[in-house]
Design brief:
With 322 residues, the chain is mainly beta. 11% of the residues lie in helices and 39% in strands. It contains 2 helices and 24 strands. The protein has helices at residues 3-33, 42-46; strands at 55-62, 68-74, 77-82, 85-90, 95-100, 107-110, 116-119, 124-127, 133-136, 146-152, 155-160, 165-170, 175-179, 200-202, 208-212, 217-221, 227-231, 249-252, 258-261, 268-271, 277-282, 295-298, 304-308, 313-319.
Length: 322
């Protein structure tokens, strides 16, 4: 091959390489300069007006066992469910008892008389305050996943995220009926529970409320399972719930306001009984990045106790309007 031909080939190759490099750089600059119109800046969501934050953290209790899962309060006592351990402490952190059990603990609730009801995934176990097992209820079915237990009068309500449905029992553990959240008078969506977050509580009148997490709502049900009322919305705004499976946890205060917790971007907020946002307890900045969604409960003075699963501690928040 002649030298002139070689020079021509080298010039052509060099031009092609330069074109590719310049074009690639141009394309990269173009991609960087064009903002995705569908992208939402999570930094904006994390920012919360300080005037809305009306609680302060006043105490932390480090937990002695690994894998804390669930939390409840009753008359100066805190019940904590771990993977295979149940523990009761007072609000200063002093232990009343701890006990190992065979099955996984998926929920914990004190009855009005102070007995401890554990959801053990597929069945309920009942303990006294000495840590002694008094009853084991029949298994729901092998696909069950009990996430919450609530008490209203003579009835015990159990949320089964594996259904999803709510079961009504009598005080002896006899199953009376179950309901899936579908209104009897129309074709409503019923409970949509994409993950094992399906919380229950009752208000001062004994009315049952359930978190229908797939539609970002808290719903009120009659004892026969018919829908009475609901509130909530899916929204990036502070007054709504973000993403899937929220609110992941909630509890009802003595004034019938709701304390809610969200998974994903962890926020703890207080809503009036009507469903209007009233204040913020804790912001995303109060938790570690990618924190597990905390469980929440409250006492007679409406202090809020937060089970910070990631940090393995209980955190107490008091109202701070001064």
């Amino acid at each position: 091959m002649k030298k002139s031909q070689i020079y021509v080939i080298l010039i052509i190759c060099g031009a092609m390489i330069a074109y590719i490099m310049i074009g690639g750089a141009f394309n990269n600059d173009l991609k960087k300069s064009v903002k995705n119109p569908y992208e939402y800046d999570l930094g904006d969501i994390r920012k919360i007006d300080p005037a809305m934050i009306r609680y302060k953290e006043v105490k932390r209790i480090a937990l002695a066992f690994p894998e804390p899962k669930v939390l409840d309060y009753h008359q100066g006592l805190l019940g904590i469910g771990y993977q295979n351990e149940v523990q009761v402490i007072d609000t200063l952190g002093r232990e009343l008892f701890n006990k190992s059990i065979s099955g996984p603990i998926t929920s914990i609730t004190f009855s009005p008389s102070g007995e401890i009801f554990l959801g053990c995934k597929t069945h309920v176990e009942k303990y006294n305050l000495n840590g002694e097992l008094s009853e084991t209820w029949n298994e729901i079915d092998s696909s069950a996943y009990i996430t919450s237990i609530a008490f209203s009068g003579d009835y015990v309500f159990v949320a089964n995220a594996g259904g999803p449905f709510i079961i009504q029992y009598d005080q002896t553990g006899q199953m009376l009926h179950s309901f899936n959240g579908k209104n009897r008078t129309d074709k409503s969506h019923g409970f949509i529970i994409p993950s094992p977050y399906f919380d229950l509580d009752v208000d001062s009148e004994g009315q049952l409320w359930a978190a229908n997490t797939g539609v970002q709502a808290i719903e009120n049900y009659e004892k026969d399972g018919s829908l009475r009322a609901f509130w909530g919305s899916s929204s990036y705004d502070l007054n709504g719930f973000i993403g899937c499976c929220n609110p992941s946890q909630f509890t009802i205060l003595t004034n019938d306001s709701f304390v809610t917790c969200e998974k994903g971007l962890v926020r703890i907020k207080v809503y009036l009984p009507s469903g209007e946002l009233e204040s913020v307890v804790a912001t995303p900045e109060d938790f570690d990045a990618n924190s597990d969604p905390p469980d929440v409960t409250s006492d007679e003075q409406n202090n809020i106790y937060v089970l910070d699963i990631t940090r393995k501690m209980i955190r107490k928040f008091e109202r701070n309007d001064s």
